[in-house]
Amino acid sequence: WAKARLEHANKAARNVKGGSASKEAIEVEMVTKILKHLEGGKDIRAGDWSVAEVELLNEMLLLTSKPYVWLLNLSEGDYVRKKNKWLPKIKEWVDSHGGGALIP
Predict the structure, then answer these.
(1) Distance CA 31, CA 35 (A)
(2) At how many degrees (to 10) do helices 51-60 and 23-39 cross?
(3) How many Å apart are CA 33 and CA 38, to the nearest integer?
């Protein structure tokens, strides 16, 4: 998706007259930054983005910019005790993939 969007933005930027401050030129720069971020194996939500960049990201509706919700199936007994032999490993995995609350 990002490579196709970059090609489209490059074509649009070449066809528009108005200098480097045009919306198309800004989009080319932004999509290039997104592509480098994704190729680095990082989620979009983990990046440092300016307010203007966040507005453009919101228009793109990228899945990796959305927050995650981690749901776990536990037995009733494990839920009541708030313990399970897998919870520490699951918590470790969640923390290594962006973190968030883990509610057993």
Answers:
(1) 6
(2) 80
(3) 9
DSSP letter string, 35-103: HHHHHTT--GGGS---HHHHHHHHHHT-GGGSPP-------HHHHHHT--TTHHHHHHHHHHTT-----
Q: How do residues 26-78 score in pLDDT, each as one tens digit?
A: 777 888 888 888 888 888 777 888 888 888 888 877 777 777 777 888 888 88
Mind listing the domains of the chain with CATH numbers?
Answer: 2-65 (1.10.150.300), 68-104 (no CATH)
Residue in 72, 76, 66 with CA at minimum distance from that of residue 88: 72
